[in-house]
Amino acid sequence: MSLSRLGGVLKFDSVKVSQCSALVAKLWGPCIREVSTSSSNRAVAQHNSKPDWNRAVSEAEKIVGYPTSFLSLRWVLSDEIANVALHLRKLVGSNHPLLKTAKNLIYNGKNNMQAWGLIVLLVSKAAGHSPEIPDMEQDKAAGVLHSQRALAEVTEMIRTSHLVHKGLVNMNTRLGPGEPDDMMFGNKIALLSGDYLLANSCTELANLRNQELVELMSSAVRDLAEAEFLGERDEQNNPLPSRPLPLHQREEASEWDCILSPLPMSGVSGCMGREWSARHVLAAGALLGKSCSAALKLAGHGQGLQTQGYLFGCHLALAWQAFLDLEAFSGPEPAYFSLVGAPLAFTLEERPELYRYIEAGKRSVHDVDYHALYQAVLEGSGIEQTKHLQNEHVTRAREVLEAFPNCDARTALTNIIVAMLP
């Protein structure tokens, strides 16, 4: 099975986390409220998308029984998580990235972490399960298996542990007075918290007693790690796009064979569209797609439907990422935006001379002239091409859903997809 269709969507060569409990907000709220954020950008995002999105997610959560976030009481009340919440308070006033990650865990919104667990459960319910599955393994009320619900929690834990680990700060760079102590302390919390979540996800996964499932989800963790080594990086490991290559200098694109094999990188570097797809398949699509595929494996479905589940997760994740990339250009000009987003990728493809602005950020992305790049994106066709890209992935995701029986879970998945559209 090949993922070449994912790259073919482009014209050139080529979870949210569910609502946390009030207890979480009580523990972490004082820390998060003091994080420096752009209130105007948040207001724009909420005004444009929040109502329909919240309604779609709320209805979907009712279908699978209850909110799916692993941040339930059994996690929040553990000694480890309680200690993390207390230590986070000591970071208030610093600029450690861990605070921003914690904020995204608490506050809802389509602009925050994706609802990976909810998607996995909806796919599980939409596909149903084999009649040979014993009754004791079924959650009759929700219409999913207990093992599928455990897998949904594992998916969210892996996703969150990866985001927490990404918050580590490079201590070898120049820091201001008093910053080293704060950054070192924040790094310890980020490292240990991420390890705790990843270790628990491995334990939960092993408890499912399915070696093929463990291998599949382990390959998703590998993909997350590989995403951090794709393309250029600044000194703090923030991603930068590669220099666009002329057509005659590009390598021939290789087929993206999956599910277990590593994603071939031939023809990726310098081809902005394929690089965007590869980056976000590795960083998001692989985990969501393989989790959906694993859920169908647990239900006793054949390889064909498992492949459809994988493709659905990949297309949904890429459509989601295209939406997030567009948000920076849907309101007032932001101070910063993603340098590896699709609108800028299309713009660099059209105007390679703009890469000089990217080169200025080799030490730090804060040295980039964001205003000049922002204006270049607005003047070009990058935004329209990104909208087309998003629509293509939305269409592909909806086509895959046709392989599933018509039911309320499939309708909920469709509503979530539609809620992403501009």
Automatic annotation (TrEMBL):
Q: Which organism is it from?
A: Danaus chrysippus
Q: What is the lineage of its organism?
A: Eukaryota, Metazoa, Ecdysozoa, Arthropoda, Hexapoda
Q: Which PANTHER family match?
A: ALL TRANS-POLYPRENYL-DIPHOSPHATE SYNTHASE PDSS2, GERANYLGERANYL PYROPHOSPHATE SYNTHASE
Protein name per Swiss-Prot or TrEMBL: (African queen) hypothetical protein
As for family, the record states: Belongs to the FPP/GGPP synthase family.
Keyword Chaperone applies: no
Q: Which GO terms describe its cellular component?
A: mitochondrion; transferase complex
Q: Kindly list the biological process annotations in GO that this record carries.
A: isoprenoid biosynthetic process; pheromone biosynthetic process; ubiquinone biosynthetic process
Domain of life where this protein originates: Eukaryota
Keyword terms? Transferase
Q: Name one GO molecular function term.
A: prenyltransferase activity
Family annotation (Pfam families): polyprenyl_synt (PF00348)
